[in-house]
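Structure in, sequence out. Go:
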């Protein structure tokens, strides 16, 4: 990504990690509009999973790195929690101003118009100052449409970009943030609420100005905003939690930014607690709890978790209370919903069926089904079919609900209500203490997953002279188990890649000749690896090569503390790639990983 300051602030800043696939998808989607348009997309995910940052990053890159496609940004985020509904004229002006602001900023290279969300009169005067006849024409038509009906001005605002994009050979990529707000817009002419999303049917289908919409209410986006006339007109892209390698990399980054020492044990424990949801990771590493100063002590993490989920000053408590608590209060008016939700949190990982809950708790099945649907609409549980659901995907949300219900439904004391949290932290502490090496393997695998065919200086990163090509890895296997004759296999990571046609093969196997592999040993220990370990590695790589039938293999040995002089000589003689921690971290930096802590 270009390092210039973009028109739109990127909320995650320095701790934004990964999302590479989404960033590449939407960059290509936008830049292909003039020649190979791909239709419209919907970017969907739970609150605070990075949707807005993805849009802002792509928008900023389009602004700085190309001139053929005009990026347009409109947001309705400020209307999310407003008690008064969005009105028709408010919508029209918000949408029109988003288009005008983006047009003038891009055409006249004025990113500041986005920085300060420049208002109507200022933009109008700027268009006069710049003698921009097209902008002035838009202003004149918009003023005329406002004098007709609310319906007219809304429809014109939605559809005018596509018409002008086509007639002026001016392709546009339109981004609309928090699209689900438009499912309830008040029309003062009819004095009724209406779902405005259906009015985007034609706008979503144009090849000259397709749309990416985002929404932080998964059920509302999928079941309401993108249904009806929009059904099937948007390709869906779900923003999932971070993979483990990116989650722990985020922990390392936050530790560096906030001057917190991060150990592999701490990073592993936070991964186990959050399962890759970025906002909970951020809150655990930025907590207002006094215990933050005692990290990386896992006892301190225990205190931070309790503070964040049970104290009103806790960032996670506030987040879940404001985003979900209001819904829980609304739908908990009867004991059936309370009992249903309590059953759900006591049966984690189980598929949820109304008839099973009703039978076990002796409740009315129809009312249980209604309660489940309400919980689904609030994104507290998630649909897995027509009649089945699953419990909250975010493990921290699950813990928040569990604590609140132990106190409010079972009327336990605060000390009693946190016992489950304390026992879970103790379990995770045990996992973290015994899987330090596991974390290093995860990061190595994550770096390899990003190999892209580039060439690097072999001596600098792998102790081997000359240029080295890092092939595009098609399959990563983290390997544990035994090999032939019961001997333990110390090949930790296998990265398979496809060989070019007519590539030389170094095997006589009858297996297909098109697949090669990197065979990697990862040793995250505070001692140098000696000759005996290298001999064992060579033996095991030969066994895996024979077992898998690879056409060729690249052997790579990563040792945190490096190698003895004797081992280094053998590695060089046998053409084995080898890296110590500094070399590996330098390599990781090439692929936007921070690397492993000292």
């Amino acid at each position: 990504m270009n390092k210039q300051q973009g028109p739109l602030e990127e909320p995650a800043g320095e701790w934004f990690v990964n999302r590479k696939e989404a960033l590449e998808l939407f960059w290509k989607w936008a830049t292909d509009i003039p020649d190979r348009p791909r239709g419209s997309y919907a970017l969907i995910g739970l609150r605070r999973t990075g949707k807005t940052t993805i849009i802002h990053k792509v928008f900023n890159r389009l602004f700085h790195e190309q001139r053929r496609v005009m990026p347009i940004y409109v947001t309705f985020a400020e209307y999310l929690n407003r008690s008064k509904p969005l009105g028709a004229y408010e919508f029209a002006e918000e949408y029109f101003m988003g288009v005008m602001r983006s047009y003038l900023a891009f055409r006249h290279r004025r990113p500041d118009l986005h920085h300060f969300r420049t208002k109507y009169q200022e933009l109008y005067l700027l268009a006069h100052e710049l003698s921009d006849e097209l902008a002035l024409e838009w202003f004149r038509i918009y003023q005329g449409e406002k004098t007709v009906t609310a319906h007219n001005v809304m429809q014109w605002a939605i559809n005018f970009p596509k018409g002008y994009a086509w007639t002026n050979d001016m392709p546009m990529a339109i981004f609309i943030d928090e699209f689900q707000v438009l499912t309830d817009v008040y029309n003062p002419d009819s004095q009724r609420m209406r779902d405005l999303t259906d009015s985007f049917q034609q706008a979503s289908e144009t090849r000259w100005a397709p749309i990416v919409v985002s929404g932080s209410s998964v059920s509302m986006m999928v079941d309401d905003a993108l249904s009806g006339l929009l059904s099937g007109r948007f390709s869906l892209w779900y923003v999932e939690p971070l993979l483990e390698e990116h989650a722990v990399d985020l922990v390392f980054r936050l530790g560096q930014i906030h001057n917190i020492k991060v150990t592999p044990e701490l990073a592993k424990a936070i991964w186990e607690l959050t399962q890759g949801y970025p906002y909970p990771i951020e809150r655990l590493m930025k907590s207002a709890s006094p215990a933050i100063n005692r990290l990386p002590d896992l006892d301190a993490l225990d205190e931070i978790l309790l503070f964040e989920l049970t104290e009103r000053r806790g960032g996670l408590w506030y987040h879940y209370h404001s985003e979900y608590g209001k819904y829980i209060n609304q739908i908990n008016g009867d004991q059936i919903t309370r009992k249903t939700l309590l059953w759900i949190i006591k049966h984690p990982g189980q598929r949820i069926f109304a008839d099973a809950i009703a039978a076990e708790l002796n409740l009315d099945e129809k009312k249980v089904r209604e309660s489940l649907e309400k919980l689904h609409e609030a994104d507290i549980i998630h649909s897995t079919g027509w009649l089945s659901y699953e419990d909250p995907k975010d493990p921290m949300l699950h813990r928040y609900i569990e604590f609140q219900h132990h106190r409010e439904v079972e009327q336990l004391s605060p000390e009693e209500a946190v016992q489950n949290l304390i026992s879970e932290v103790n379990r995770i502490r045990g996992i973290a203490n015994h899987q330090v090496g596991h974390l290093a393997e995860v990061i190595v695998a994550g770096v390899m997953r990003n190999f892209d065919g580039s060439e690097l200086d072999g001596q600098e990163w792998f102790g081997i002279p000359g240029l080295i090509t890092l092939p595009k890895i098609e399959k990563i296997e983290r390997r544990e188990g035994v090999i032939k004759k019961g001997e333990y296999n110390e090949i930790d990571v296998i990265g398979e890649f496809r060989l070019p046609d007519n590539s030389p093969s170094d095997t006589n196997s009858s297996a297909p000749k098109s697949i090669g592999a990197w065979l990697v040993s990862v040793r995250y220990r505070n001692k140098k690896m000696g000759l005996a370990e290298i001999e064992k590695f060579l033996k095991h790589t030969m066994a895996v090569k024979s077992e898998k039938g690879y056409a060729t293999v690249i052997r790579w040995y990563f040792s945190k503390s490096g190698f003895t002089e004797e081992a280094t000589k053998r590695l060089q003689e046998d053409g084995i790639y080898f890296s110590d921690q500094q070399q590996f971290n330098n390599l990781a930096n090439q692929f936007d990983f921070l690397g492993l802590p000292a």
